[in-house]
Amino acid sequence: MNQPVWDRFVRVFHWSLVSCVVLNQFVLEAGETPHEWVGYTASALVLARIVWGFVGSRHARFSDFFPTPARLARHVRALARGEHPQYAGHNPLGAVMMLALMGLILSLGVTGWMQTTDTWFGEEWLMELHEWLANGLLLAAGLHAAAAIVMGRLERVHLVRAMITGFKRSY
């Protein structure tokens, strides 16, 4: 397999989002203006990716990989049999993870913004929810990265390299 998969928009989106998450989790001070703006940038990136999921290139479109129950069931059954089906774009479990990550980032954007408003400023439950979402994002992102490495080995495809070059290549 040596085929184009991820267009430039998807790759720039992915690595820009990774940068936003790393900055907000490990570099910037929570609650400070740069943290807020990086969070808004991450939310805007996700919103742009959602639009691209309807108008973008073939493998960027949700219709190409949306994880329907039937697609998920087929994929999980194949994995249980020790099979590793090849997918040009996201496999169904990868699609679930991608959608979960985007949902977490949008939830962080909303809860972060809410904390800047007069109505919600200083609400302890909201600050705790925001922190829980951030920890959930870190956990999900770690699982996503580990799965990309493990599934890449099992499927014998350079998944991480594909998100850099745009091409999926077999080992």
Automatic annotation (TrEMBL):
It is a multi-pass membrane protein. InterPro entries: Cyt_b561_bac/Ni-Hgenase (IPR011577), Di-haem_cyt_TM (IPR016174), Hydrogenase_cytochrome (IPR051542). The keyword Cell membrane applies. It is found in: Cell membrane. Coiled coil: none annotated. It holds the Pfam family Ni_hydr_CYTB. Its main location: membrane. The chain crosses the membrane at residues 93-113, 133-154. It comes from the Bacteria. Keywords: Cell membrane, Membrane, Transmembrane, Transmembrane helix. Residues 5-166 form the Cytochrome b561 bacterial/Ni-hydrogenase domain. PANTHER family: BLL0597 PROTEIN, NI/FE-HYDROGENASE 1 B-TYPE CYTOCHROME SUBUNIT. This is Cytochrome b/b6 domain-containing protein.
